[in-house]
Amino acid sequence: MILALHDFWSAHGCLILQPYDMRMGAGTFHTATTLRALGPEPWNAAFVQPCRRPTDGRYGENPNRLQHYYQYQVILKPSPPDIQQLYLDSLKVIGIDPMKHDIRFVEDDWESPTLGAWGLGWEVWCDGMEVTQFTYFQQMGGFDCKPVAGELTYGLERLAMYIQGVDNVYDLAFNQHGVTYGDVFLENERQMSKWNFEVAETEALFDLFRKAVAECKNCLANDVPIAAYEQAIEASHIFNLLQARGVISVQERASYMGQVRDLARGSCEKYMEKELPRWSAEYEGWTA
Amino acid sequence: MSDFLLELRSEEIPARMQKGARADLEKLFREQMAAAGVAVGEITVWSTPRRLALIARGLPEATEAVSEEAKGPPEGAPDAAIDGFCRKNGVTREQLELRDVKGRNTWFAVIEKPGRAVKDVLAEAIPAIVRAFPWPKSQRWGAASLSTESLRWVRPLSGIVAIFGEELVECEVGGIVSGYATMGHRFHHSGDITIGSADDYAEKLRACHVIVDHAEREAIVREGAAKAAADAGLVLVEDEGLVVENAGLTEWPVPLLGRFDEDFLSVPPEVIQLTARVNQKYFVCEDSSGKLANAFICTANIAAEDGGAAIVDGNRKVLAARLSDARFFWEVDQKTRLEDHAKKLERITFHEKLGTVADKVDRVAKLARWLVEEGIVKPSPLQGRGLGEGASVASTSTEVPLSPTLSPEGERENLANLAEQAARLCKADLVTEMVGEFPELQGLMGGYYARAEGLPDEVADAIRDHYKPVGQGDDVPTAPVTVAVSLADKLDTLAAFFSINERPTGSKDPFALRRAALSVIRQLEVSQIRLPISVATRLSAIRVIARTRGGAEGKNAATAEAAMKNLRLANGEGFVERYRSELVESALDNIVEEVVQEVDEKMPHLLEFFADRLKVQQKEAGVRHDLIDAVFALGGEDDLVRLLARVHALQSFITTEDGTNLLAGYKRAANILKKEGVVPAKAGTVGEPDAGPGAIPAFAGMTGESLSYTPEIAEKALMDALAAAAPKASAAIEAEDFEAAMAALATLRTPIDRFFDEVTVNDPDGDKRSNRLNLLAAFRAAVHNVADFSRIEG
User: Fold this and answer.
1) What pTM was estimated for this model as a whole?
2) Chain B residue with Cα closest to A162
3) What residues of A are in contact with residue B317 (Cβ under 8 Å)?
4) Tell me, what's the ipTM?
């Protein structure tokens, strides 16, 4: 399935990239999305990104909720006029027949307070299940996207469930020799759910959060915005873990999110600042 | 005459925006045509997820030629002025005409504006409409978005069809050029469809699996869903919101029924319905006994090759996962007792200046108990209709009297305990997983969890219903425990926000205080509850204000007691005693005086707010707002039940002939007194404790004092009538027999009329004059005892 998508998007001009090697909540955090959505240069890329959402853990007992799963992400900047059709064509190559399944574009505006980003778009439904998030980025890191990028985020497990016709994610066949998704990940889900919700040492997490914040600032002071952005990713994930452990009160929540947003914004701002002279030179009249 | 068709095609428009968009499209089109002088008749506007369409029937081919005249300078004006006038109007000097204006020759320009082809008008109007379109949210897209000035639309705009008669209206906006071609259904049809005119538009689309008329799609969803349910031997739970939403999500709607695992029915039906509706936009069904059935109806956007079997199966899986999650929440939540959930409220801020939800709950619990202990909310059956015992699902007991074997005191104590218990738990469900997922289930889930852990039904019902009544048509609770908690919750919210000066202004009411006040009013009315609002709200206000002032350490009962004397509270000693213990308990000490002062400063605003809400609410019942004012102006009245009874009596009286004439007599008396500078006792002090209600200024004839002169007949008659009527009216008011009070006033009508007819107030004799003024002042005071007639209109 991944190979089919790689082939498809590669044929449509996308770079095929590898996952970012950090824990993150969504493919959108990948620098190939966040940072590349900034600035005037065209950028077309596709990649798989493992995602971790600690609060979505269900100890392996929910048929389609996981605290660790895979997204397939495509970013097309500027968004091409036939982007919806391209997307539907890509569903066909992985075996989803739109005359048999009910494909729908249902309003879902996207906002990431921690990235200072928002966009308009849809969640794409396949027979009532959200299988893709489809977004036209309008702002990233607090900056207007000029031009606007189209982002497609496929939920690989969910699509696979449709294609294979199984009710439970753990029943997905991983190969043709009887190995299932459950064989690979079920125990992982159980243990990680337990760790996320019950075991993780919260003091250490708070400490990690503080260290990431400090390091991000250090990076910004030393003019390395990509390194700073990595620390923002780190802080964001630690914050999610603290949420799962239930140790962040409602009052504190806004303040933590504000801190992460400031890191992400600061990184984007510095990244823009560094690139701006080149962009302004190549794209006459372009400003942030 | 020709018909005009406009179609604006785009990527999927959110369902909830389509209705507004149709109205906006028609409005903008009419505005554009009006500005160009094109007469517009019937307009049809349709929407689908992918297009907005407008058809205007019978537009003229051209606008009419108009000739306009412009008045210029007078004959003999400087050349520069005349040349300027010509330039401005685009005429030459030779084309000017001289006309006589009031005896003076003046230059006129006659400007002929030829008619314009409507096709040209339309070509200009379309881009203007697109650019001005007021979408609630819009976006940029594509290569053009390199600039933030690029065209905005709700989602990328992809095509424009504009045909006038059978001719193309050529126009362009944001790089999109108008044409004859549109697209059919996303999956049922590929390639372009060429539209010939407004007449074949809908039918050509229908042939390509697009029903462009939203109303027709709505009917298909509505009737199709009902039929699918009936075919399965079930009854559809109707939901017009879902009908419209599903019609807004489809161009070719096909309702399909599916089943989910019966085991999920262990989850409360409201949860299942909400999950199905909110997350999946499914209808649900009931069996013949009205119980939720294990069926759902989804609306597909295609007529699938397999009749929809795969679609239903897919949707079933999704719903199963959702319900599995709901069941997970339902089970996890029940592992913790409500009282333990309630402890977590300490971590939730209610408002930054008002502390946590736990703080609020504590105030509500104390107030709920107080309402019962004071006998305001009674254990005996409450009058009125509404949400009472067994009125809704799963409510079994709550039959009053609560415990027939208890003494009245015991019963009251029992009720007070239940009310406090329910109040302490009423917000606990806010921290449950289920309410976290579905905030609209607050209260309801608390009720379920309370029952599941074996708490008394009265407590569970109160937790479930304490947010009610929420809107105009909502049930009003009448079960005593529920009433106590519901009233306490809302009174506390109002008192708390008024304590920090967060009052609604204009259209801004972020904390829904108007709704809270209205909800209190309705409950008081329905159950005829005699509540001194200013006392009850002060209880919460004292706690809030003491807290915002930081509160002092140590206890100083003497200071508190001294301060209590400044609290001007009606209704006897019992309340004051309680305030003292409240104040002492809060350890307010030396700051108590400031606190009480602040409370006294702020709470009158709340009472005024209630008066305003009452006026708005009573307006619908036909009660005059000036009469409410007239009674409120007396001051000291904060028992809305009594107030309304008085207003009703006043309204029946004032519309009688006696009433109208008495009002006229009153106004005359008041005017004379005003001219003579005899001021009435200030509103608000009429009911002052020292004066006692019904204090009438002394006047000869009442006090038995003899006069220095022989009063005229009419004068004597008024004196006698007043001496008889004033105490009668006062006594009747005291006894809350407002009809009798009005009747007593009515006896003054003839004497006052006669007095004005026959007696000169402004007599040269000083004694006569002053006695007559005193008499009028006494008359005015007697009337004021019933209501402040100066506030009455007419």
Assistant:
1) 0.76
2) B314
3) 63, 127, 129, 161, 167
4) 0.93
What is the residue whose two structure tokens read 């929440």? B329
> Which residues fall within 8 angstroms of residue A193, CB to CB, at 6 or more apart?
A57, A58, A59, A60, A67
Nearest 5°: the CA angle B519, B378, B410 is 145
* CA angle, B222 then B225 then B229, to 5°: 140
Whole-number Å distance between alpha carbons of B107 and B84: 12
Are B353 and B500 a contacting pair, CB within 8 Å?
yes
User: In a 3-state reduction of DSSP, which class is residue B148?
Assistant: coil
Chain A residue nearest residue B344, CA to CA: A249
Do B421 and B413 touch, CB atoms closer than 8 A? Answer: no
**Across the A/B interface, how many CB contacts are shorter than 8 Å?**
137
∠B48-B16-B509 over CA atoms, to 5°? Answer: 160
Cα B747 from Cα B196, distance rounded (Å)? 83
CB within 8 Å of A88: residues ≥ 6 apart: A98, A103, B186
Q: Convert the pLDDT of each residue in B67-111 to its tens digit.
A: 888 888 888 888 888 888 888 888 888 888 888 888 888 889 888
Burial class (CB in 10 A: 0-12, 13-18, 19+), A217: middle
Write out chain B residues lying below 8 Å of A40, CB-based.
146
Please give the Cα distance from B709 to B688 (Å, whole number).
34
Helices vs. strands in chain A: H and E counts, helices first: 8, 9
Angle between helices B240-248 and B214-231 (to 10 degrees): 120
Name the nearest CA neighbour of A115 among A235, A218, A262: A262
Sign of CA dihedral B70, B76, B80, B86: positive
Kindly report the number of other CB atoms within 10 A of residue B586's CB atom. 19
Residue with the two structure tokens 């009798």: B740
Q: Is B765:B713 a contact under the CB 8 Å cutoff?
A: no
Choice among B381-390, B598-607, B614-623 with the minimum mean pLDDT = B381-390
**A287 touching chain B per CB within 8 A:** no
Test B145 with A120 for CB contact under 8 angstroms.
no
* Count of other CB atoms within 10 angstroms of residue B22: 18
Interchain CB distance below 8 Å, B301 and A104: yes
Question: Hey, how many other C-beta atoms are within 10 angstroms of the C-beta on B39?
Answer: 12
Instruction: Write the CA distances from B636 to B597, B683, B693, B696, integer angstroms.
Output: 17, 10, 11, 18
Q: Is the peptide bond between B604 and the residue preceding it cis, with omega within 30 degrees of 0?
A: no
d(CA B707, CA B288): 86
- Minimal Cβ distance to B311: which of A78, A102, A249: A102
Residue pointed to by tokens 């921690």: A114
| Tokens coding B402 | 């609560």
Residue B110's φ and ψ, nearest 5 degrees, are: -105, 115
For residue B384, what pLDDT is reported? 40
Q: β-pairing, B66-74 with B104-113?
A: antiparallel
Query: How far does B486 lie from chain A, in Å, by closest CA?
Result: 25
Chain centroid offset of residue B685 CA: 34
* pLDDT tens figures, A88-135: 999 999 999 999 899 999 999 899 888 889 999 999 999 999 999 999
How far apart are the C-alpha atoms of B631 and B635, rounded to whole Å?
8
**Parallel/antiparallel/unpaired status of strands B283-286 and B349-351:** unpaired
| CB contact set of A182 (below 8 Å; sequence gap of 6+) | A60, A169, A170, A171, A172
Smallest Cα–Cα separation from B200: which of B50, B53, B49, B60?
A: B53
In 10 A of CB A55, how many CB atoms? 16
How far does A168 lie from chain B, in Å, by closest CA?
Answer: 9
- For residue B310, list chain A residues with Cβ-Cβ distance below 8 A: 100-101, 127
Looking at beta carbons, which residues of chain B come within 8 Å of A251?
Answer: 347-349
Flag whether pLDDT at B172 surpasses 90. Answer: yes
Pairing between strand A143-144 and B181-183? unpaired
